[in-house]
Amino acid sequence: MQGGLYKSLVKEGLLVEHEEVDQPVHSGDAYKIIRPEQIRFISYPYEWCFSQLRDAALCTLKAQRMALEHDMTLKDATAYNVQFLESRPVLIDTLSFERYEEGKPWIAYRQFCQHFLAPLALMAHTDVRLNQLFRIYIDGVPLDLASSLLPARTKARFSMLTHIHLHSGSQRKHSQAGEKGSMSPLKVSKNGLIGLIDSLTNAIKKLSWQPKGTEWGDYYDFHNYSDQALVRKQELVASFIKKVDGAQACWDLGSNTGVFSRVAAGLGMETMSFDVDPAAVEKNYRECRRAKETHVFPLLLDLTNPSPSLGWAGSERDSLEGRGPVDVVLSLALIHHLAIGNNVPLERVAEFYARISDHLIIEFVPKEDSQVSLMLTTRDDIFDDYNKNGFEDAFSGHFEIVTQEPVGDSVRTLYLMRRKPAAG
Amino acid sequence: MRVRSFRRDLVIISIAAFFVLPQTAFAYIDPGTGSYIIQVILAGLLGVIVVLRSFWAGVFAKIKRLVGIKPKEAPEEAVSSGLDDTDKD
Fold it and tell me: What is the pLDDT of residues B15-32, one digit of tens each?
């Protein structure tokens, strides 16, 4: 810390701040105890959109570059060492910095390629959904898998060829243990390291993905509401949120590009803005960066298959539910997708919502709505209880309906509900 | 730069011939050595470029001073604009 690296990193917004704490030391080996600034909601790379992962990668490289200037280096380059604070990526593993020894290679290079370069390359060149591979491979995308999934044309790009394809080939060729002994005389100079970091930075910067053409990315161009009606709905949602005392944190489910998340944020709530569509999350995030948004953060989430607990003993990465419950959940223009589009019984939706929220602002979309009737043209209508009464019955098992109002210019109804205390 | 990178690509591709040979993968035994080797090679090449770049930058700065053009503040290395237009201010 004395060297000035900590100050520089914090000043550039690359590292989470911490303070040293005087507490009775339990273990005789403990050198110091630090209390880092708390991140309100932990998120994981399989929940990030393309640009979030890209920004996290550039943050890591920038920190490593800065570290080298102070004769230090990063031991790890894992995506899980980056979290987002007010829409900006920050490193959270202060202990990952160690003294740099001239000649030693960057030990985190392989990890950087697996956690950042490979998934970003796959998202940009193959399919944007491939960051979901993080859910299967706990240490990032294996390079041989990335190499086989990337299109052959990537071999014509220097950065892809070297850091992924040749890297993977080298790993395969030298995978038998025991060769390391003869390798130790091979050194990496500081300029070589700088060159390597710069090369990786350029590689990441060249990767890009444009959010368009996905199912929901263009939703607000084709939705049901006139502009006036949209404004009125925003006002209605705002009035409901104001009725909840002391609410600080909000999850907006199926938020698309975050129009209503920003309503909640405008009222002071820290809002996680979830959606299943990578293009919607990407657009939302770009807007957050542009506006230097502090109270909205977008993330990818498939409610029918939410982030599970992962890692050793299923306890290294927390499930979505494990990171709740939250004060308020917004479920606008969503219920019909769950109940009709995905056959989830209304009672089950209510039960799940009760596990993750204290208050619920939910919009019921009846069969008369044009979106629902469209859905029912291609499905058998087996949803006998899918109506206003059935909805209220299903939710009354877990929630108390505080108030309801019709949503202007539509057949929908907006409800404010409070979770009933668990029975018995 | 284009010529240099083409030559560089040729060098890389010829070295690559040694490495991209199909073989059964036991990466779980030792995933580190392969990464180490490729890093040594890449860093070796890229390090030369870093040195050359700062050498030529120095030369141009000297020339500009001699000719009377006010020298620009040395631009930060590529990494500086890492977070594009949204650095913390």
Answer: 665 555 444 444 455 668
Q: What is the pTM of this model?
A: 0.86
CB proximity B76 to A under 8 Å = no
Nearest neighbour of B25 by CB, restricted to A12, A175, A179? A175
**Angle of helix B2-19 versus helix B32-67 axis, rounded to 10:** 170
What's the pLDDT band for A13 if we cut at 50, 70, 90? confident
Please state the φ and ψ torsions of residue B4, each to the nearest 5 degrees. -60, -40
How does pLDDT run across A208-236, given as a tens digit for each residue? 999 976 666 666 655 556 788 899 999 99
Nearest to B79 by CA among A199, A79, A190, A108: A199
Residues of A in contact with B36 (CB under 8 A): 105, 180, 183, 186
Least confident of A206-220, A276-290, A356-370: A206-220
Q: Is B20 within 8 Å of A166 when comparing Cβ atoms?
A: yes
Chosen for mutation from A188, A193, A200 (greatest number of chain B CBs closer than 10 Å) is: A188
Partners of A275 in the beta sheet?
Answer: A300
CA distance A211 to chain B (A): 18
